[in-house]
């Protein structure tokens, strides 16, 4: 089903074979890469929708200087001493804070807007935060605080090289990717709708298996797993 060192070329080789072109005479890496990026984006979204733990991670400690009231993404040239959000952040889940030099973190509470009565007043703890305009915003503190964040991460960066050697770092994704990529290639390159429908059907079965494996490991955890098939049909109806 895949491994942490799954290579892009492994997926593309399989997808070419599914077009009866194992030699990649027509289905070269150059022809496949745009569609592989589409399949990777779709897999990312499916994992997010179904709360698969592989998209969950924890940030490094972000040290927030006194009087700083927001943390955003880094510009092209970062400013030394300024905290920035992780570059692979999609959405924060839980924030934790502590005073610099102490050991215990306490959870912060997300709110729609920060208390207006505390604007301009420096606090010792942030307590609340908002997620607005791709920034984490909080009250001004008179001391240095530290924040850690549980967040949903982006698993993949767009593939731009044609070597087939890019590592995808995903477990239980190979079957879905090779069939979904094969389906996209059959539909939009080979213009063979019958083959596309068959391969998309195999992709649906593969993602159901992958999500089922994750669910078995989380049976004691309350989740909001969404059914895959209706969402997949909506995605695969393009073209």
Short structural summary:
It is built from five helices and nine strands, in the order H-H-E-E-E-E-E-E-E-E-E-H-H-H. Strands 1, 2, 4, 5 and 9 form a five-stranded antiparallel beta sheet that branches. A four-stranded mixed beta sheet has the order 3-8-7-6, with no helix packed on it.
Strand-helix topology:
Elements lengths: L7 H10 L11 H21 L6 E3 L3 E3 L5 E2 L17 E11 L6 E2 L1 E2 L17 E5 L2 E3 L7 E9 L20 H15 L4 H24 L11 H9 L3
Parallel strand pairs: 6-7
Antiparallel strand pairs: 1-9, 2-9, 3-8, 4-5, 4-9, 7-8
Helix pairs in contact: 1-2, 1-3, 2-3, 3-4, 4-5
Question: What descriptive keywords fit this protein?
Answer:
239 residues; alpha+beta; five-stranded antiparallel beta sheet; four-stranded mixed beta sheet; 33% helix; disordered C terminus
Describe this protein's structure.
The protein has 239 residues and is of the alpha+beta class. It has two domains: 8-54 and 155-236, no CATH class; 55-153, no CATH class. The chain is built from five helices and nine strands; from the N terminus they run H-H-E-E-E-E-E-E-E-E-E-H-H-H. The longest helix has 24 residues, at 193-216. The model is unreliable at 223-239 (pLDDT under 50).
């Amino acid at each position: 089903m895949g491994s942490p060192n799954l290579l892009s070329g492994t997926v593309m080789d399989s997808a070419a074979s599914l077009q009866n072109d194992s030699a990649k005479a027509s289905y070269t890496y150059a022809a496949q890469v745009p569609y592989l990026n589409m399949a990777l984006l779709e897999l990312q979204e499916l994992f997010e929708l179904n709360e698969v733990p592989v998209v969950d991670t924890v940030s490094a400690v972000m040290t927030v200087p006194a009087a700083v009231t927001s943390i955003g993404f880094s510009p092209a040239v970062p400013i030394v001493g300024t905290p920035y959000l992780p570059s692979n952040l999609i959405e924060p889940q839980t924030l934790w804070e502590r005073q610099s030099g102490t050991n215990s973190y306490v959870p912060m509470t997300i709110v729609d807007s920060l208390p207006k009565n505390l604007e301009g007043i420096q606090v010792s703890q942030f307590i609340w935060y908002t997620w607005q305009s791709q920034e984490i915003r909080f009250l001004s503190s008179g001391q240095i605080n530290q924040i850690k964040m549980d967040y949903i991460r982006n698993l993949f960066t767009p593939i731009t090289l044609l070597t087939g050697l890019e590592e995808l770092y995903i477990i239980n994704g190979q079957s879905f990717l090779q069939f979904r990529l094969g389906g996209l290639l059959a539909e939009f390159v080979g213009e063979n709708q019958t083959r596309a429908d068959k391969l998309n059907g195999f992709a649906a079965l593969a993602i159901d298996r992958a999500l089922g494996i994750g669910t078995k490991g989380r049976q004691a955890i309350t989740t909001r797993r969404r059914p895959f098939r209706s969402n997949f049909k909506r995605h695969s109806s393009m073209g």
